[in-house]
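## retry 2 of 3
previous attempt timed out at serialization; input unchanged, resubmitting
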Amino acid sequence: GVEHVEIGEAAVLNGAVAENPNHPIDGSDGDGVTIEAAPADKKFTVWGEDMLRAALGVDGAVIDLAANIELKDSVQDGSAYAALVIKDKDITINGNGYTLTADADRIFRIYGGDISRTVTINGLKATADQRVLETRSGNLTLDLEGVTFETTGAGNTQVLTAGGTSAGQSDAVININGSTLKASTNGYAVITFNPVDLDITGSDLSGYAAVYMKPADSSLGSAGSEVTVTNSTLSNNGQQKGETDTFGVIVLQDSNIKVSVSASKIDVKGYYELPRQSAVLYNSSTGDISGNDVTLTDCTIASDGDYTLLTNGANDNKLTVDGGKSDFLVD
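## retry succeeded, writing output
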C-alpha cells in the first residue's frame, strides 16, 4: 500500500523521506521534503509542490498526481526560470486529469543526458503564461499522452518548445498522442529550434501557427527534422493584423525538413489582407531555404476568411497534395 507521512506542512511521498534543509532537492527552499531513500518501485503519489519537485529528483520515478498543484516557486536554469527542471533522468508523470499552473512563465524544462533519456507525461493538464514545456537538448524522448497544454499570455507564447541545443547528441524524439496543445493569439503550439523527430497522432494543435520550425541561431536549427502527423487537426487562428511576415498553419524556416500529414484536417484562417495566411509556408529571414518536402495525404484542407493561401514561398521546396478535400485549387 501507499504510506503517507506528514512532515511539517508537506505530506511526504510513499517512500522513506525526511525534512533535510541542508540537502534540499533542487528548487526546494528546504521547507518542504527531500527523499532519504526512494521506494524500490520508485512510485510516488503527490499532491503538493515540494512533493512533486522532490519526486522529480529520483531517476526512474513514476509520479501520480492526486490533486491540482499550483507551482509558486521557480528554479533558475541558465538565464531562464522554470517551475520544474528535469535533467538526465527517466521520469513518468501520470496527471490523472489534474492541472498544473505556475507563477513562473515556464513550467517544464527537460534535458536528456550523456545517454538517451525518456520522459513520459500522461493525462496532465497544464496552463502557463508563456511556455508549458521546453526540451533543452537531444538524447531525449518525450512522450505526451492525453495531455492538455495551454498558454494564455501575451506575445509569442510557446506551448511546446524544442530549444536549447542538441549539438553532439541524437535528435530529440517527441511523440504527441491524443493531446491538445493550444497557444494564445500570437503563440505557437509547437516550435522547434533544433532537429527533431516529431510524431503527432490523434491530437489538436492550434495557435498563430500549429507547427513552426525555426532556422539556426544559438541553436542548431530545424534542418533535417522529420514530422509525421496522423488523424489530427492543425489550425491557425488568423488573428494577427498588420504589415508583418505572412504566416501559416505549418511554417518552415529552415531547409531539408520532411513533413508527412495524413488523414488530418488543416484549418487555415486569414481574416486580414496583411499578413496573408497559408496552410504551408516556406519563409526565412536568414536566406533562401530549400529541400523541404511536405506531403498532405487524404487530408481536409479548409479555408476560413478571404485572405488564405494553400502555400506560399515554395521556390525550391516541394508540396504534394494526394487525395482528400481542399477549399483551394490544387494542380
